[in-house]
């Protein structure tokens, strides 16, 4: 069995599993958004941070990477991802159809926000920046998560105007 995983946030720079191949990919009707309150990795229950999630929006398009798990590691990769991504049940594990740059379509495991979960939020960009600038969790500062993700998107040639605005604003708030 071939296992593809869609990376749109921290999986871009920290997949945590052996990647045999990576390809530019996009998924329709979803956007990358800081719409999940982080109470474990980039914030706490007392002072939640924000992390990215795929949020369903008709007509949206999210670009990222299709990551193929190394042959023979598929089961271990899924176990790892479930432990990492489903820690609070705010994500739903779904198999989504991705379009690769060469026109190929593949199915990939993806982590989508559960809009009915208490950690789901839709906040204005300024409020997102204020939270990201000061939150800190078990995996470090929330700003580090933003900066790493934005830098990797730039390196990959995947523009994300909202993330770049947040980078500039969070840096200004932290100065």
UniProtKB/TrEMBL annotation:
Lyase listed as a keyword: yes
InterPro entries in alphabetical order: ChaC (IPR006840), GGCT-like (IPR013024), GGCT-like_sf (IPR036568)
EC number of this enzyme: 4.3.2.7
Keyword Lyase attached: yes
Keywords: Lyase
SUPFAM superfamilies: Gamma-glutamyl cyclotransferase-like
Enzyme class per UniProt: lyase
Record's protein name: glutathione-specific gamma-glutamylcyclotransferase
Taxonomic path: Bacteria, Pseudomonadati, Pseudomonadota, Alphaproteobacteria, Rhodobacterales
